[in-house]
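FAQ: What does the model actually see?

It sees only this:
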Amino acid sequence: MRKAALAVADAGFRVTLVWGDHLASTVVEGELGPVRTIGLPVPYLLRDARARQIIRRRAWRPGWPAYRDRGSLRAAVVRLQAASARAEGRGIGARLVLRFRAFVNGVRSKAFAFQERVFASLWRRLDRRRLGNLPHVNWRRELANVADLEAAFTKWLWRLEPDAIHVHDIHLLGAGVQAKRRLAKRGRRVPLVYDAHEYVSGLAGKDPVAEAAYAAMEAELIGDADAVITVSEPIADALVTRYGLPRRPTVVLNSPSAEGRAVCATDVRSAAGVASSDPLVVYAGGLGRLRNVPAAIRALPLLDGVHLAVVCVPDTSHAGARALVAVAAEEGVEDRVHLLEPVPPEETVSFLATADIGIHPMLTGVANHEMALPNKLFDYLFAGLPVVVSKVVEMDRFVHRWRVGETFDPDDPADLAAAVRVVLADLSDYAARTCDPALRGDYSWERQAEEIRQLYSATPGWWNDKSVARPGVQMLPSEDV
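And it is asked to produce this:
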């Protein structure tokens, strides 16, 4: 996002980067080189209210015969234990009353367990019904966070009176569309660029209803975009097919720079405390379920002497990091798994360079994964690391085209271990191919930035007002900035 803003500024445009911070209470203005930055407070009031409403609705239970909730169940058990202590040494009447209370508690506890299963099944059926009616998912109701973002961003976009709006990711597409429509009513035709960082219709995470809502939102609003940017050739083709776009999206990868990279004060091998003679495999990125990082740990018992460094995003206190510690203990490889804090994004390539192999074990069978060329793939390659990655369609094609690594079945630790052994056996040749000038020339950020500059400079009809010597572009980053 920051690199894109600088690329557009380099093409001769006045760029303002408008970003949101849910912890901020005031507007913060600054500069990123030639780019003006404006940080807006984004209180997620509607999102949080919606979440509380859903929790209350899903937590509702009849109060009899079962307990209403787990808190009531626990309180009843404590009361029964206290009564039992008081009944010691008392007469038979007190003991009979205690037995009756214990019997009632047992009945209500079993009723609670049954009730929980029934309600869980009910919500699963309701969610499937909503998902089965995907074209009619009410994304405005399901995505209250989008309304929060529109409230925070849209008025600022009216005030800034941009000559173009560039929206990063799906979360702020609604704000960009609303601003474009409002400005059109005031007689200003403002082109909108939608930068799709994912194949939204092919996501598969924890909340299928939210993902269906984002897909419905994209389907409704993408037609308002004057140009679309995305992150791989297959995703560009899929967007054209799905939405009938009049122009094929421009493909721009978020890859590292080939020149002038920031140098990190430390490196992954030193941070992990791994000797230079020991093989070191590194994973750098998020720890969500779909990233499948435990698979790499489960392969270690089959890889004598090989260490795994996990650069944890957002940090090593994340629940996903704690889960990795448990997996390492289960496999008996705690001494060869090293959880590390992340470094600034611009220092990532330098930090990773002392490892031997970069790994990405993300799950197969997810449409967005099958079409993706993830950022970390290029971080590894530009750090000079051969890669061992899941056998998803686009990464498999890329890795074998350039012969920079091996692929594996992420459901099979033995296959993962075999791929690592193949690369380690011929490490110098694999590493040399990562430095292929053609690869680095085609996939460096300098090449990607040129695609952005051409989009802005060569699109006819965008800059009709000849009095605007340097049109102003407002960029909106993704929700998580």
